[in-house]
Specification:
This protein is an alpha+beta fold and 230 residues long. It is 20% helix and 39% strand. A hairpin with a 4-residue loop joins strand 7 and strand 8 (119-126).
Length: 230
């Protein structure tokens, strides 16, 4: 994504309009779109089983093999948070015309390594709330990242539709790192606003690495099968 979940309410710029985002297991009979080579970081968007009389089907998004790419593990162990930015868009197919974009939802997952505890944290940022989970091993972290998200976004009118899903993977930028730090201090800290010299120097060193390390980034995009809404 286990220790108890920490739910926060402070809005941040990662607070996107995701309503009813669920973590689900793989279900049989679910259709899948694949667009990446085996063994590489992999993104899929599936259609959940029809659960409405009109035929609307929710998208199910899953990413896999993230930690098979050693660049991201190296970034984490160097003290650089890794950001996974997910986007799911709803499109109406119009035959010979340009397809019509209707709306999209977004959410973020931030991965961090805590060297003193030798643990990994997964911070999920959705709709102004944050949920943090901790994992003791890379295997446990990899399993958590392979969970599927069933997103509560569906077409509202009759027609022929499909979903697009994208995943952007990057280390946090200088400004993102500062914003994340303020977010965590405001919601998880003692609230007195004081910072030790070690904290300042630590963040300064990380920002220096962010500027000079030639950090990796990756963008994946896939499309679901089409489906009809009556």
């Amino acid at each position: 994504m286990r220790r108890p979940t920490v739910s926060l309410t402070r809005p941040t710029r990662w607070a996107f309009a995701v309503v009813g985002l669920l973590v689900v297991g793989l279900a049989p009979g679910v259709r899948e779109a694949r667009a990446q080579a085996p063994g590489a970081v992999h993104l899929t968007v599936r259609l959940a089983t029809d659960s409405t009389a009109a035929g609307a089907r929710a998208p199910v998004v899953r990413s896999q093999h993230l930690l098979d790419d050693g660049r991201w593990i190296s970034a984490l162990r160097s003290g650089l948070p890794v950001r996974l930015h997910y986007t799911v868009g709803v499109w109406r197919s119009r035959g010979g015309w340009f397809d019509a974009f209707e709306r999209q939802v977004e959410w973020d997952v931030v991965l961090r390594h805590e060297p003193l505890l030798d643990q990994y944290t997964v911070l999920t940022l959705v709709a102004g709330r944050a949920r943090e989970r901790r994992y003791a091993t890379l295997d446990a972290l990899s399993a958590a990242l392979a969970f599927a998200y069933q997103v509560s976004v569906r077409p509202e009118q009759p027609g022929r539709y499909y979903y697009t899903a994208s995943l952007e993977i990057s280390t946090l930028s200088d400004s993102d790192l500062d914003e994340l730090q303020r977010f965590l201090e405001g919601d998880l800290g003692d609230g007195d606003g004081k910072q030790g010299v070690g904290d300042v120097l630590g963040r300064g060193a990380t920002r220096f690495l962010l500027r000079l390390a030639g950090l990796p980034s990756l963008r994946l995009e896939v499309r679901s099968p089409t489906f009809d809404v009556r």
